[in-house]
Amino acid sequence: MALLQSPSFCFPLALFLSLLVNSSHCFNPKLLNISKVQSEGDWSPAGATWYGSPDGAGSDGGACGYKNGVEQAPFSSMVSAGGPSLFKSGKGCGACYQVKCTENAACSRNPMTVVITDECPGGPCVAESAHFDLSGTAFGAMASPGKADEIRNAGVLQIQYQSRVACNFPGVNVTFQIDSGSNPNYFASLIEYINGDGELGAVQLKQALDSDSWLPMQQSWGAVWKLDGAGQLRAPFSIKLTSLDSGKILVANNVIPVGWQPGQTYWSVVNYAV
């Protein structure tokens, strides 16, 4: 439905007097923040618990493979394990969600962003349609100042979450951490710090500069993707990423250099625009 473009609509003064209205007689449609109304309606219910140390990052990387990176910037321990609907058999690794708690007296009611970095495969995580098993740090961050311990002692919380929140890691580009088992005939890499969707639906690899063929990689586990059975691979490698939900494509040209080494991390110079 189209909206009228006039900045205000004024009632005739005679009509005002007949209605005995003493307040201002102009209606300004700008006072109605339509986008805010819509965003408030996008919240869905979920359950929330926490694990690990009270001020920690939950686990050391968990089922996504991020290792101790979950404690460091840009994740900074604001992470969560996801139940099946969030973890998505590993395809949900790296996705961002806004969460907030409102039903406990200790809740701040302020939204915050967390990243899925682990799996919660049982217990309350499978009893609800959506469940966040947050790090102690993230769980405590939902509390009002000085009430983090109080909220962590509340057991299972009923919270609200907002999906399809764009990940945004300012100043950070996509990185590739080569799996320690990689060799000239087998290549696997952890892929992290993806803006936008955060989740990957497909990954492809192109070999040395004279090659025009993109070889499909398979999800190995979590956020680790692999290429096996293609024979001896020739670096440098370019990596093409396709985001899971939006289908947007990003290419990191020649990101894995000649002489690459297992266990090393290689930073690209690209990331999705947000």
Short description:
The chain is mostly beta strands and 274 residues long.
Written overview of the protein:
Strand 11 (200-206) and strand 12 (214-216) form a beta hairpin. The strands form four sheets. A six-stranded mixed barrel has the order 3-7-4-6-5-8. The protein is built from six helices and 17 strands. Mean pLDDT is 85; it is low at 1-39. The longest helix is centred in the first third of the chain and has 7 residues, at 13-19. It has two domains: 44-165, Barwin-like endoglucanases; 175-267, Immunoglobulin-like (Sandwich). The protein is 12% helix and 34% strand. By secondary structure, it is mostly beta strands.
List the helices and strands and how they pair.
Blueprint: E1 9-10, H1 13-19, E2 26-27, H2 34-40, E3 44-51, E4 79-82, H3 84-87, E5 96-101, E6 112-119, H4 124-127, E7 131-135, H5 136-140, H6 148-152, E8 157-165, E9 175-178, E10 186-192, E11 200-206, E12 214-216, E13 218-221, E14 224-228, E15 237-243, E16 249-256, E17 265-267
Parallel strand pairs: 3-7, 4-6
Antiparallel strand pairs: 1-2, 3-8, 4-7, 5-6, 5-8, 9-10, 9-17, 10-14, 11-12, 11-15, 13-14, 15-16
- The H-and-E topology, N to C, reads as EHEHEEHEEHEHHEEEEEEEEEE
- The total number of structural domains is 2
Assembly type of the chains comes to single chain
Query: What is the number of beta strands?
Result: 17
What would you call the structural class?
A: mainly beta
Net shape: elongated
Biggest sheet: strands side by side, in what order?
A: 3-7-4-6-5-8
Give the mean pLDDT: 85
